[in-house]
Amino acid sequence: MQFQDRKIDDAMQSYARRWMKSIDRPRASTTLGFFFIGLFILFWSSSISSLLGFDVKKGYGTLIFVAVGLTLTFTIILVNRFMVKIGLERPIRSALFLSALVGPYVNQTTYNSWNLPVISHLAGFIASILTFTISYLLDTALGKYLNNDK
Fold it and tell me: Which helix H or strand E contains 88, and what residues bound it?
């Protein structure tokens, strides 16, 4: 029995050494795009469930809500993994997600207010570009600040 305990002790010490080395690595900070995409998944899930004619608080409506939410979540995870594989950095991925959320909503808001399709598309496009730029600059500045703080 002595030999088995020694193997477990060595494994635990090895794990502890690897964990201690990993403490000094810089960790990812919270980013705007990834935060808001989670909130919008909940919003989209309830909206899609309601538009399909199901009450979110009752039986099948809850199942549809959960199914749509999980489908959207896995889709976002797959898109994020694809962007990682093609080499996009975390601030760029986050800015893309946030600008993809903001642009269409600005487009729809201006179209419903003014009923001018060209102006609403321009407003949505400009909002997407501004959102991408601001989010990217804010995320990189926050990342530099957090890395210099250590």
Answer: none
The tens digit of pLDDT for each residue in 19-28 reads: 777 666 555 5
- Residue whose structure tokens are 């919003």: 43
Residue 24: its pLDDT value, please? 62
Q: What beta strand segments (E) does 1-87 contain?
A: none
How many other β-carbons are positioned within 10 Å of the β-carbon of residue 136?
A: 21
pLDDT digits (tens, 9 = 90+) for 11-48: 777 877 777 776 665 555 556 777 888 888 999 999 99
> What's the CA gap between 62 and 78, in Å, rounded?
24
The angle formed by the CA atoms of residues 39, 144 and 96, to the nearest 5 degrees, is 35
For residue 76, count CB atoms less than 10 angstroms from its CB and return exposed for 0-12, middle for 13-18, buried for 19 or more.
middle
Q: Are 69 and 38 in contact (CB under 8 A)?
A: no
